[in-house]
Amino acid sequence: MKKIGFLSFGHWTPSPQSQARSAADVLLQSIDLAVAAEELGADGAYFRVHHFARQLASPFPLLAAVGARTSRIEIGTAVIDMRYENPLYMIEDAGAADLIAGGRLQLGISRGSPEQVIDGWRYFGYQPGEGETDADMGRRHAEIFLDMLRGQGFAQPNPRPMFPNPPGLLRLEPLSEGLRERIWWGAGSNATAVWAAKLGMNLQSSTLKNDETGEAFHIQQAAQIRAYRAAWKEAGHMREPRVSASRSIFALVDDRDRAYFGDGQEDDQIGFIDERTRAIFGRGYAAEPDRLIEQLKTDEAIAEADTLLLTVPNQLGVAYNTHVIETILTQIAPALGWR
Questions:
Q1: Continuous segment of H or E residues that includes residue 27
Q2: Contact of 204 with 79, CB cutoff 8 Å
Q3: In angstroms, rounded to a whole number, what is the distance separating the alpha carbons of residues 80 and 182?
Q4: Which residue in 55, 103, 116, 147 has its CB near the most CB atoms, within 10 A?
Q5: Which pTM was predicted?
Q6: Helix crossing, 190-198 with 217-235: angle to 10°?
Q7: Does residue 277 have a pLDDT over 90?
Q8: Beta strand 3-8 with 44-47: parallel, antiparallel or unpaired?
Q9: How far is CA 133 from CA 80, 83, 138, 140, 170, in A?
């Protein structure tokens, strides 16, 4: 059995071919799609975060709105770029959104991917410390965030406060109990997956990773997941971790599907996410249901993961993406034992 959710990158464009032509369109349609996905029985609504782009950027207002409109579905990110984040302010935002949602947040964070501008985090007021890279800075922000989520007091109270304080050092409020166990790390390499396991974070493995062995994407991703689980066990954490894999999967069941995805790419792609890092991008799946089921049976990483995030083409609109999710839930997932 797997949890199955959707992942939206939240693109918009003024093109007349797009169903999402403005930021308002994307935000409101994201809420509507989460509501529709919950009604279908999906398990999660996840959103990507990008800065300086016509995409979703500030996740917490959206997560809170989705939380207020739904009652069961998990609500998350995949991922928040921690190079851009003030981890203390993020505690307050995340705590408030999680309380509104009744403890359903599943926050994916990471060091981030290449952005639309050069060193965009510096415009947000952040600089790597002495001897740090921007990736180091992102991981440092993540560690501060995780530490603050424990809810320990650390700030000296004012002896003459405006309102009465509880005794002792003060923590950030509102704090949502249990959120610390619902933080995920988006790992691009095996090493960062192991690092995440040691810190007690769940693992998000996306549709790209560092090409570390030259093998097929799903084989490398499965190895990453196994390395993560081994490191988790070695660290001695008491709970079971969660692991998600993201995929573009389309069952071709009508003329719309065939028009949009009938010529879908069926091979991994190789590229570079920066000057030094060779990356492998996982193939998408688009086929008639019977053939699609057989293809997915051979995906080792999906088999290793307990959660599958379906990347959706949000610019095709809520109705079409509801159809995409429903088709996977009803025609594909049962045949694979995911439901």
A1: helix 23-40
A2: yes
A3: 14
A4: 55
A5: 0.96
A6: 30
A7: no
A8: parallel
A9: 18, 10, 9, 10, 32
pLDDT at 115 over 90: no
Residues 6+ apart with CB under 8 A from 1: 337, 338, 339
Show the DSSP H helices in 41-86 as ranges. 59-69
CA distance linking residue 302 with residue 310, whole number of Å: 11
User: ω into residue 174 within 30 of 0, thus cis?
Assistant: yes
User: pLDDT tens digits, residue range 285-309?
Assistant: 999 999 999 999 999 999 999 999 9
Residue 309's alpha-carbon distances to 216, 249, 305, in angstroms, are 20, 10, 10
Taking alpha carbons only, the member of 334, 190, 50, 8 closest to residue 205 is 190
Cα separation of 248 and 162, whole Å?
53
> What is d(CA 133, CA 121) in angstroms, rounded to the nearest whole number?
12
Strand order across the 269-272 sheet: 208-210, 278-281, 269-272
Q: List % helix, strand, coil for the chain (3-state, nearest 5).
A: 40, 20, 40
> Which residues have C-beta within 8 Å of that of residue 74, sequence separation ≥ 6?
3, 5, 43, 44, 45, 104, 105, 106
pLDDT digits (tens, 9 = 90+) for 82-96: 999 999 999 999 999
- With vertex at residue 119, the alpha carbon angle to CA 136 and CA 125, rounded to the nearest 5 degrees, is 80
Query: What is d(CA 290, CA 306) in angstroms, rounded to the nearest whole number?
Result: 23
Complete DSSP assignment for 98-149: HHHTTS-EEEEEES----SSTTGGGGGT----TT--HHHHHHHHHHHHHHHT
User: Which of 225, 230, 218 lies closest to 243, judged by CA?
Assistant: 225
For residue 318, give the nearest of 45, 2, 14, 3 by alpha carbon.
45
